[in-house]
Amino acid sequence: MWLPLLFSLLLYTLPVFSLLPHPCLPSHRGLSYPSAICAYGNMEIDENSLVSQVKRALYDSPFMEARSLVEDDVIYSSPLLSFEGFRDYVELSEGWNKQLMPSLYCSKFCVMKVAALNEKSVIVNWNVTFVSESTAAIVAVFNVVPFVRIRYFDILNRERIRSSFSWEALGKTLLRLLETGELLLPHAVIVGSSEMTFKKQNIKSDDSISLVAQKDSLNLIKSLDAGYLKNRKLTLDLLEFCDKMRPSYIDFDKWNDVISERIDTRKVPGMGQFDIDGLEGTNEENIQTVSNTFLKLSLPLGLITVIFSGYLWNQILFSSDIGAANMQPLDYYYN
């Protein structure tokens, strides 16, 4: 009887733990998706080439942040937004670092590849990784448990596979946590590309190029348009990312309308208004699996709860800096 009450209590207290400070893990490490590995800084290219100049101009976003490298009548387009003009481009670029990235939990921008399309154009492949809102509270909870290591993985290779809640998968995850002390969590990975066209005058300096047009695209939106995207978790990650991309000059209601009109989530199974995880596939086999899992986990979970409660209580009462106490070297989470 106490086990359902324990889980209910944990669910109700998760939002509280999301407020606790915790370290952000390296976003591009441990990802199974090959393109999610940062290649920035490792490309051997001609120092005076257009690719090299673009590479040096990109810092923490897929935008040309140096204003001297952007034309006054620059043309920008993306799946959600299009405009013409230097002022809007600069505002969008500044909003990326001041609004978008800070609002995404433990976010990291990464340039994967810069390649020339012709003498005046390049294609920049990039990704943004972050901890989604659905797992942020769980991360905060287990970051204060000293014997638990969090390991991220991405599920981009499962975009065509319908996602659904599975008690069996939950049981396996918890058993792995108890046996190895390692908690596996899905990492949100947004892969995009920027096609940039420049007006090139002099190849001897970085100031010789000037951006005249930029066209951005997101891989998950392409998959959704083509009817390939069936994974609900990836769709939620995409919606969270697009929601945070709102320019400051567009109000919330109008931006929500833009997203809902462009991203038709009705194409994704499980994204309907009355779709509820866990209602499908409830048969005798699943019920037996759930019963066996809870029997195996009842005693260990009880012990973990007692230890965790005592540890957390000690941290709150006797630690003057709970955040510093849990700051571990980045490699700690992967050794």
For this entry, give a set of tags.
alpha/beta, 335 residues, 10 helices, two-stranded parallel sheet, 41% helix, Nuclear Transport Factor 2, Chain: A
Give an overview in words.
The chain is α/β, with parallel strands linked by helices. The protein has one domain: Nuclear Transport Factor 2, Chain: A (Roll). It has ten helices and eight strands. It has helices at about 1-15, 50-55, 85-105, 135-140, 165-180, 220-225, 230-245, 250-260, 285-320, 320-325, and strands at about 70-75, 80-85, 105-115, 120-130, 150-155, 180-185, 190-200, 210-220. The strands form two sheets. The protein has a six-stranded mixed beta sheet with strand order 2-1-8-7-4-3. A hairpin with an 8-residue loop joins strand 7 (about 190-200) and strand 8 (about 210-220). The longest helix is centred in the C-terminal third of the chain and has 35 residues, at about 285-320. It starts with a helix and ends in a 10-residue tail after the last helix. Residues about 15-20, about 25-35, about 40-45, about 275-290 and about 310-335 have low confidence and may be disordered.
